[in-house]
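Homework help board

Subject: predicted structure for assignment chain

Our instructor gave us this sequence and asked us to write out the predicted structure in token form, then describe one feature. I got the tokens but I'm not sure how to describe them. Can anyone check?
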Amino acid sequence: HISGSRDPLSAPTAFYMLIETSGSHSDHDTEKINKFLEESMNDGLVTDGTLAQDTTQCRQLWGLRENIASALGHAGTVYKYDISIHVKHFYDMVDQMKERLRQKEAAVVGYGHLGDGNLHLNVSTKKYDQEVFDLIEPFIFEETAKLRGSVSAEHGLGLSKAN
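My token output:
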């Protein structure tokens, strides 16, 4: 849904990970990331990848990540949640929401920060649907509490969670 964007990999995949590194010796840094990727691919943890060769490519990759919410907005209504949960449960919340909404015309997308367990859980529908909303809330808050997470991760509480 974002003009000019394209998949950076040779074929679409269910999961994407964006890793950014910085160091003081670019040759050494490149060697380390290449070794990490090679080992990850040999272990079957990674099936495909791309490395930015310059700052323009780096900006293009980050642009894909930064435009996820905007792209979802093109579909219609987006129900947005910003929670933090332990990394071992990170994608479970997405799967649970997909299961809860399986009878609805809704897309469930999860992305965020694996390093700190911050999950941006977004549900998009063509138009606002109270039944969808009722399937999301209060479930997402209750489930987050059960997992000893927080309903106010990166973006704080906001007005809708004030009570």
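Reply (TA_rk): Your tokens look well-formed. For the description, you could write something like this. The two ends are 35 Å apart (CA to CA). That's the kind of observation they're looking for.
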